[in-house]
Amino acid sequence: MTQPLSEIRKQIDALDAEILELFNRRARLAQEVAEAKLAAGETDNFYRPEREAQVLQRVRDLNQGPLDDDSVARLFRELMSACLALEKPLTVAFLGPAGTFSQQAAYKHFGHAVQAVPLPAIDEIFRAVESGDCQFGVVPVENSTEGVITHTLDSFLNSSLGICGEVSLRIHHNLMGKQADLAAIRKVFSHQQSLAQCRRWLDRYLPGAERVAVSSNAEAARLAAETPDSAAVAGETAADIYGLAVLQRNIEDEADNTTRFLVIGRLAVGPTGRDKTSLLISTGNQPGALHRALAPFAQHGISMSKIESRPSRRGAWDYVFFIDVEGHRDDAGVAEALRVAQAEVSFVKVLGSYPRAQA
Ligand SMILES: C=C(O[C@@H]1C=C(C(=O)O)C=C[C@H]1O)C(=O)O
Description:
The chain is of the alpha/beta class and 359 residues long. The protein has 12 helices and 15 strands. Helix 2 (49-62) runs antiparallel to helix 3 and helix 11 packs antiparallel against helix 12.
C-alpha cells in the first residue's frame, strides 16, 4: 500500500533539511581545506582538478541508484563548484557569446559557480589566460564528425600555457527560427563546424536555403532572430536566449557527434590514476625521427590515443606533432618514455597531464 502524498512529502521535507545541513557541513570543511592551503603558503589557487576528478569518480563508484552515475556526478560537480566559490569564484574564459557549446563545456567541467567570461575568438581566450585576466580558458579542439580544430592546436605553438583538463560534450544541433515553414526559409546561419556536422540533413530538408557561416552558433541564433525568413543551427540554450522556436531537434548527421574541449591554464595537475598527457613533438626532417620518439611509449605499454600533425610555421613542409598518450607525466612508465624520447628528437614539450574526461 502506498503512503498518502502528504506523508511522502513530509518525509521529503525532513530529508531536504538533513541534506541542506550536510551541504553546509561539507562547505565548512572545504573552507577548512582552503585555510590549510593558505597556511601552507598557497595564496592564489585553491582549485585542485585532480582531487575533484577523484571525488566525482568515487561517487560514481559508490552510487547504488536509482539515480544514474551521470546524474549523481552532475549534482556533486555543482556542490564542489559552490564550495570552491565560497573562497573565490574561478574566472573561466570561453568562446562566446552566451549560449555556445563552449559555455556548456565550461559549466560541465567547472560547475556553474564560476565567473564565466565570453570572448569572441580562440586567440583572445589564450591571451586572457596568459595575461592573468582569467585563470582558465575552455577551447574546442576536435569534433568526432569534422575532426581537429586546427586554430586551437596552432595556438599552443606560440603560447606558454598548458593543458589542465579536457571535457567531452555530446553535441546536439537544432534548427531554430521564427519561421516555422521550412519551405520559406531562405538563409541558415551557423558556425562553419556546425553546418558541416549537419550537411546531409540540410541537403535533404533545406536544399534551397543559403548557408551562411558566422563566428559562433549563438551569433547565428542572434542573427536569425533579426533576419526575416531565416533560421539558425545551434544548441538549445541559444534558442532560449534569443527567443527562437526549436523547429527540429537533433539534426546532426552522426548520432554520436561529440566535441572535445581543452581547459587551458598554468596549473600543474597531479595524477589521479586515470590521466592523459598531451605532448608537442618536433622532429626536424630526419628519417625515422618520429618513430624513434614514439617507440619508447610503445615499449612501456603506453597507448597513444591521438596524433595530429601541423605545419611548424618555420619553413615549408616542416611539421610538429600533437600527441596524446595515456597516463600522467609523473607515472614511472610515462616519465621514462619521455626521458628517452627527449634524447631522440629535437623538441618534446609536455603540454600537460590531466584527468581523462568523464562522461
Ligand atoms: C576542498 C578542497 O578544495 C577544492 C574543493 C573541493 C571540494 O569541494 O571537494 C575539491 C578540490 C578543490 O578544488 C580540497 O582540495 O580537498
